[in-house]
Design brief:
Its EC number is 2.7.1.121. It catalyses: dihydroxyacetone + phosphoenolpyruvate = dihydroxyacetone phosphate + pyruvate. It comes from Alkalibaculum sporogenes. The protein is mainly α and 215 residues long. Helix 3 crosses helix 4 and helix 7 runs antiparallel to helix 8. It starts with a strand and ends with a strand.
Length: 215
């Protein structure tokens, strides 16, 4: 059985925060094609503020992601704060009492985050949002687990599904958000939220693999 220990694993969240920081300019450039061009700036602001509240504290993975979610909900403007705050808060609630986090625990947490997001935003697959990254990522992850793959291999599939989902938003017409005003002109561009979601999921998968244990 492969697992990660929940306790003292806040570095997983810190790696996610660092990845967003490093890609913030890229995310704003993507957003500039169909939106306000501030997605990367807003994400980096909220994630960096959460980092200040995590560093130096001996936190679990779930507690660190709780801080990230609460920070985004309370302290970042725009639509991404509530969206990612809701997802991370559901992940925290799903994992807070789990000592040894296994693949099925992560799958449940991601599914709960997705369902909460759909309830909040009213978006669905094909609307050219971060849901178009989350859904295929979760589906490929679930399929890998059901097929008997290891936790590590299933995380590779999660990353692959996220990448494919993000890439597919380039062929979609935006139906929700500021980009929706462009209608057909939004086709041919990646969605910024789908791209940041891909970065988060792929970084999380890599970070979890980096502290994997087995018994």
């Amino acid at each position: 059985m492969e697992y990660i220990v929940n306790a003292r694993n806040s570095d997983i969240v810190l790696q996610i925060i660092q990845a967003i920081h490093e890609k913030s300019q890229y995310l704003s450039e993507i957003d500039g094609a169909t939106g306000d061009g501030d997605h990367g700036v807003n994400m980096d602001k909220g994630f960096s503020l959460a980092k200040e509240r995590i560093v130096g504290n001996d936190l679990s993975f779930s507690d660190a992601i709780k801080i990230l979610g609460r920070t985004l909900l309370m302290d970042i403007g725009g639509s991404m704060g509530p969206i990612y705050g809701t997802i991370f808060n559901e992940i925290w609630k799903s994992l807070k009492d789990v000592e040894k986090i296994q693949d099925t625990n992560v799958l449940t947490a991601l599914n709960n985050g997705l369902m909460a997001l759909i309830d909040l935003a009213g978006a669905k697959p094909g609307d050219k949002t971060l849901i178009d990254t989350m859904v295929p990522a979760i589906q490929t992850f679930a399929s890998a687990i059901e097929s008997g793959n290891s936790f590590s291999k299933s995380l590779d599939e999660l990353s692959r599904g996220a990448e494919e989902g993000k890439a597919n938003t380039k062929n979609m017409m935006a139906k929700i958000g500021r980009a929706a005003r462009l209608q057909e002109r939004s086709i041919g561009f990646l969605d910024a939220g789908a791209t940041s979601c891909c970065i988060i999921l792929q970084t999380m998968a890599s970070a979890i693999k980096g502290c994997m244990q087995s018994e």
